[in-house]
Amino acid sequence: MFLRSALSLWPLARNGTRSYSSTGVTKLVAVTVDDQTGIATVNLQRPPVNSLNLELLTELSSSLTDLEKNKSRGIILKSYSDAVFSAGIDILEMYKCEEERVTLFWSALQEVWIKLYGHFAPTVACINGHAPAGGCLLALSCEYRVMVKEKTIGLNETKLGIVAPQWFIASLVNIIGQRQSEVALTTGKMFTTEEALRIGLVDEMAENTEDAFSKSLEFFKKFKNISPFARAQTKAFIRESTIQALVKNREKDLKMFINEIRKENVQKGLGQYLESLKKRKVS
Ligand SMILES: CCCCC/C=C\C/C=C\C/C=C/C(=O)SCCNC(=O)CCNC(=O)[C@H](O)C(C)(C)COP(=O)(O)OP(=O)(O)OC[C@H]1O[C@@H](n2cnc3c(N)ncnc32)[C@H](O)[C@@H]1OP(=O)(O)O
C-alpha cells in the first residue's frame, strides 16, 4: 500500500521502470525507479570519466532531493561507464577557477554529500569502475559498496598536493577506522578492489557491472523484515555527528577550500597533475 502510494508520485511507467530527471531532460544524472521494488538507480553519465563539476553535482543534488520527497525504497549509485565510477572532482573546477563558480561548486559538493550520507533510504554504491578521491567520497557516503574486480579506489588527495577535507576523512574513518585511514590518506593510497575488500573499504567484489548490480540489489533484501522507520532513524543517529560537523561549519569549510586551492604551489601542482593525466593511460 505504502509502496503504491509513494510510487504514484513518480512520472510515467515504462517497461516496469520510471525514468526521471529533475530538469525534465536527462543529462548528467539519469534516475530510473523500478516499479516493483521502488528502488532507484542513479546513473552518473558525464563522459569520459564522470568527473564532478558544478553541473553534475547540481543535478545529483536535485535528484537526491526528489528521491527523498518521493520516498524511494533505496538507491543504487552507479556509473554509465564500465571503466570509471567517477574520477573525482573535475580538476578544472579547482585550477585557475573564478571565485563565484568555485563557491557554487564547493557548496554543491557539500550539499550532495550531506544529502547522500544522510539519505533516509538504504543506499548502495555499485562501483563499476575506478573511484579516486571525490569518486571514492561518493561511494563512502553510501551504506554498502559492491565493487567490480581489478578497479581502484581511495582518497589520493595527498598525491595531488592537496589535503582531504575533514568530512572526506570522517567518511573513510567511519568505515575502515583511524589507523588504516591515516596510512591510506597520508600516502594517498589507491586500493585495488581486492585490497579494498580485505580492509572492509568495500563490502563485496563483483565480476563485472551486471554482477555488481545484482549484488547491489541483494543488499536491500536484508531489510525485508525491518521497520523502515526503525532502520532510517538508526542510520540517522549513527551518522548525525559526522553530518553535523560539516553542517555547522559549511562556511568555514568553504573558505578553507578556496584558500587552499588558491595557493601558488597548489595551483602549480594541479596544473602539472592535469598535464600528467593527459600524457598517461591506465590499462
Ligand atoms: C587545509 C584545508 C583543506 C581544505 C581542502 C582543500 C582542498 C582539497 C579539496 C578537494 C579534494 C579533492 C578531491 C578530488 O576529487 S581531486 C581529483 C582526483 N582525481 C584523480 O586523481 C583521478 C585522475 N584520473 C585518473 O586517475 C584517470 O583518469 C582514471 C579515473 C583512472 C581513468 O583513467 P582512463 O585511462 O580511463 O581515462 P584517462 O586518464 O585517459 O582520462 C580521460 C580524460 O579525462 C581527463 N580526466 C581524468 N580525470 C580527471 C579529473 N579528475 N578532472 C579533470 N579531467 C580528468 C583526462 O585528463 C583525460 O582527458 P583528455 O583530454 O586527455 O582526454
From TrEMBL:
Biological process terms in GO annotation: fatty acid beta-oxidation
Assembly and oligomerization: Homotrimer.
Highest taxon above the source species: Eukaryota
Function: Key enzyme of fatty acid beta-oxidation. Able to isomerize both 3-cis (3Z) and 3-trans (3E) double bonds into the 2-trans (2E) form in a range of enoyl-CoA species, with a preference for (3Z)-enoyl-CoAs over (3E)-enoyl-CoAs. The catalytic efficiency of this enzyme is not affected by the fatty acyl chain length.
Catalytic activity: (2E)-tetradecenoyl-CoA = (3Z)-tetradecenoyl-CoA; (3Z)-decenoyl-CoA = (2E)-decenoyl-CoA; (3Z)-octenoyl-CoA = (2E)-octenoyl-CoA; (3Z)-dodecenoyl-CoA = (2E)-dodecenoyl-CoA
Keyword vocabulary terms for this entry: Acetylation, Fatty acid metabolism, Isomerase, Lipid metabolism, Mitochondrion, Transit peptide
Record Gene3D superfamilies: 2-enoyl-CoA Hydratase, Chain A, domain 1, 6.10.250.170
This protein's pathway: Lipid metabolism; fatty acid beta-oxidation
Organism name: Henosepilachna vigintioctopunctata
InterPro entries xref list: ClpP/crotonase-like_dom_sf, Enoyl-CoA_hydra/iso
Lineage: Eukaryota, Metazoa, Ecdysozoa, Arthropoda, Hexapoda
Protein name: Enoyl-CoA delta isomerase 1, mitochondrial
Gene Ontology molecular function: delta(3)-delta(2)-enoyl-CoA isomerase activity
Subcellular compartments: Mitochondrion matrix
Listed GO CC annotations: mitochondrial matrix
